[in-house]
C-alpha cells in the first residue's frame, strides 16, 4: 500500500540574500532562491526569449546542484488574457502541469 504524502510548501524565498514576501513579483527577478518546509533548497534562474519566459529550477545539495525542472510562461495574447506557468520535470517534453503564478509553479517542482 502506497501512502500519499503532502507536497512540500515554500517556507522562505530570498532575492539577493534578502527574504521577500509572498506578494513579491518573482517574475521580475533574474535569480531567486527558495527553501521548502522540508529543508530542501533551490535556485531559480530566469531567461526570456520573445513571448516566452523560462525559469530553470535547480536543487542545491551539499554535494553540488541537481536539475529540478523548468517553468515556462508564454505571455498571453491580449484577447485571451490567460496566464499559466507550465512546469516540466527534468528532460520532459510535455508539461507536468500548470499553475497560475510562478511561486506555485516552482513549488510544484520541489521535493
Textual characterization of the structure:
The chain contains one helix and eight strands. It is mostly beta strands and 111 residues long. The protein has an eight-stranded antiparallel beta sheet with strand order 2-1-3-4-5-6-7-8, covered by helices on one side. Strand 7 (85-88) and strand 8 form a beta hairpin. The chain starts with 9 loop residues before the first strand and ends with a helix. 17% of the residues are buried. The model has no long low-confidence stretch (mean pLDDT 89).
Defining traits:
111 residues; mainly beta; 8 strands
Compact description:
With 111 residues, the chain is mostly beta strands.
The topology string of helices and strands comes to EEEEEEEEH
Work out the strand percent. Answer: over 45%
Helix count, per DSSP?
1
Q: Structural class, judged by helices and strands?
A: mainly beta
Name the overall outline: globular
Largest sheet: 8 strands, antiparallel
Rg calculated over all Cα atoms: 14 Å
What is the straight-line distance between the termini? 21 Å
Low-confidence stretches: none
Main-sheet strand order equals 2-1-3-4-5-6-7-8
Topology of this protein?
Elements: E1 10-15, E2 18-20, E3 31-36, E4 41-49, E5 52-61, E6 64-74, E7 85-88, E8 97-99, H1 102-109
Amino acid at each position: 500500500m502506497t501512502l500519499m504524502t503532502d507536497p512540500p510548501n515554500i517556507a522562505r524565498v530570498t532575492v539577493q540574500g534578502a527574504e521577500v514576501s509572498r506578494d513579491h513579483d518573482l517574475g521580475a527577478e533574474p535569480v531567486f532562491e527558495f527553501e521548502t518546509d522540508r529543508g530542501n533548497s533551490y535556485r531559480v534562474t530566469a531567461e526570456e526569449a520573445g513571448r516566452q519566459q523560462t525559469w530553470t529550477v535547480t536543487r542545491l545539495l551539499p554535494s553540488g546542484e541537481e536539475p529540478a525542472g523548468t517553468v515556462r510562461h508564454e505571455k498571453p495574447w491580449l484577447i485571451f488574457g490567460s496566464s499559466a506557468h507550465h512546469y516540466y520535470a527534468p528532460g520532459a517534453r510535455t508539461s507536468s502541469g500548470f499553475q497560475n503564478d510562478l511561486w506555485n509553479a516552482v513549488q510544484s517542482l520541489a521535493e
